[in-house]
Amino acid sequence: MNKYEILEKYYGYRSFREGQEALIDHILEGKDVLGIMPTGAGKSVCYQVPALLMPGITLVISPLISLMKDQVQALNQAGVHAAYINSSLSENQITKALAFAGQGRYKIIYVAPERLETERFLRFAAAVEISMVAVDEAHCISQWGQDFRPSYLHIVSFIEKLPRRPVLSAFTATATGEVKDDIVEVLGLREPMTLVTGFDRQNLFFSVEQVKNRSQYIQHYVADHEKESGIIYCATRKNVEKIYELLAKEGVAVTRYHAGLSGEERQKNQDDFIYDRKSVIVATNAFGMGIDKSNVRYVLHYNMPQCMENYYQEAGRAGRDGEPSDCILLYSAQDMMINRFLIENKESNPDFTEEELRTIRERDEKRLQIMQFYCNTKECLRAYILRYFGEKGEGACGKCGNCQKQYLEKDMTQEAKKVVDCLEEQGERYGMSVVVGTLLGGKNAKLKEYQVNQYPSYGTLSKWREQEIRDLIGSMIQEGYLRQTQDKYGLLQTTGKTQDLLDGLCSITVKMELKSSKTVEKENGIKGSTGRYADILNRRGIAFFEVLRELRREIAREQGLPPYLIFSDKTLVDMCVRLPMSREEMLEVNGVGAYKYEKYGERFLACIMEYTGGLREKFYF
């Protein structure tokens, strides 16, 4: 078979996505590659297809047991023999898996980086032909990345011990230029083809909402999307428990995931979500890496993540099948304090020097500030994300939350000067909350304790709303007229540019959102749409989509598999559009390969025939 035949037989696709074929060709030529591709862009195909064409075994280095299990299960469902080696297996199971691999039964083996240094695995690796080592989540090898894992450094020494150097391929979804260079250098990639396919995910709708009651927003949003699968991320276990209990009381099929639960409960809850026994999971960022569930229709963030890399990776778990999905971040100024506390108390790596730890803390704080700017910007959110990752992100996308809001531009130069007056009166000793409270003329206990009513600036901006003053200060920080100290206090201070503002050499313009009925709906978590697929399917088509979903659930229960491994939502939508009536027509459906047709195709054909009576024209969707 050639690469096209493999793609069609095992994956059900007629053509490669952007970047896939170029990476595959380089690997087959025996050259190293580095692929930086967004979640859902098909990174795994880039090493799985050449693995099936190369003579020996491909080792895939993966950081999490759940990721390996998910990928191997998907491969076996597609008709590819694969295995994983990690601590979840017994010694007998590992012995059996290695024996089968030695006999040529497995072309692809997933392995944890810690396993590479064991004597037993080294003996196995020396005795078989290893054609390729593929490093998944490759950013974990960079100490400047957001998920550095010292165990990934075992990969380098492992490769050096092999009798023959295999092809090296590395893949990640999120990497800045610095992390990209680090991957190449630390892994020792030899003149690799480096391909960045772009970070843009057109099917994802990004929005930042600063609502008064985040819990109520989530409650309403989930109720409005009751048939959809979603993830709700919280920064702390306490918030996970709060949102979990709130939704459970409402009768939502919800589960939870955080480090405070036992390993057994975490695994059970994760499986309940993956197998669609529970439609919603509330979790800390401990959940999700490597979860390949393709039908997640929304990711809500109850708290702001610590950095853009984490946010884009977590948000990117929505819509992996390419179908429309929401990524909504609920922002509160309190999130900065929570994240600064988490950064200050983050467990440090004992292998790092004091200087390295200080540099890492400074970078963590800088990433956090960039995340804060994202939450406060009135510009296009998609463009902001793309620029962060080094891509051109100019203009408005027209499809993010900010692009769909209406703004009024207001000259706030005089108000900005009052902010500066306040800072100078207070000796630049306070953070955002105290400064804003002073300008508003607030009367809470903390402000009374600091006796802020004694300052001339007290109450000078009382006619403005709190969020408007925060927006103003945020704009002043972004434009360099103010700065925040990079510590847990986040003190507001003037800069060298501040005097230009006071001297009238520049002006400050702030975009302010115009309240509308659409805005009120958003604050209450109301989407107001008739369905994700209303622009593709009519009402009858959407009803039939639910029929196919129920058949998928039934087959999944019988097989003991996650439903999305049977067929993705994208495949079911394409069935609704095409209404295939024969084997040949079913094989034209996106995501239906020959192997999967033999396993499931006839039952879906029978369902289509029963629903339409074999009259495609009458039931055209």
Query: What number of domains?
Result: 4
Quickly name the level 1 CATH class of the largest domain.
Alpha Beta
Would you count the extended β strands for me?
Answer: 17
The name of the CATH topology of the largest domain is: Rossmann fold
User: Helical proportion?
Assistant: 40-55%
- CATH superfamily of the largest domain, by name, is P-loop containing nucleotide triphosphate hydrolases
Spatial sequence of strands, sheet with the most strands: 3-4-2-5-6-1-7
Radius of gyration: 27 Å
Shape summary: globular
* Tally of helical runs: 25
Uncertain segments are 516-521, 526-530
Second CATH tier, the architecture of the largest domain: 3-Layer(aba) Sandwich
- Report the sheet-strand fraction: 5-15%
Distance between the termini: 36 Å
Outline the structure in words.
It is a single chain. With 621 residues, this protein is of the alpha/beta class. It folds into four domains: 3-196, P-loop containing nucleotide triphosphate hydrolases (Rossmann fold, 3-Layer(aba) Sandwich), CATH 3.40.50; 204-388, P-loop containing nucleotide triphosphate hydrolases (Rossmann fold), CATH 3.40.50.300; 409-507, Arc Repressor Mutant, subunit A (Orthogonal Bundle); 539-612, DNA polymerase, domain 1. Helices cover 44% and strands 13% of the residues. The strands form four sheets. The chain has a seven-stranded parallel β-sheet, with helices on both faces. A six-stranded parallel β-sheet has the order 8-13-12-9-11-10, sandwiched between helices. A two-stranded antiparallel sheet has the order 14-17. Helix 12 (308-315) links the parallel strand 12 (296-301) and strand 13 (325-330). The longest helix is centred in the middle third of the chain and has 23 residues, at 354-376. The protein is globular, with a radius of gyration of 27 Å. 43% of the residues are buried. Residues 516-521 and 526-530 have low confidence and may be disordered.
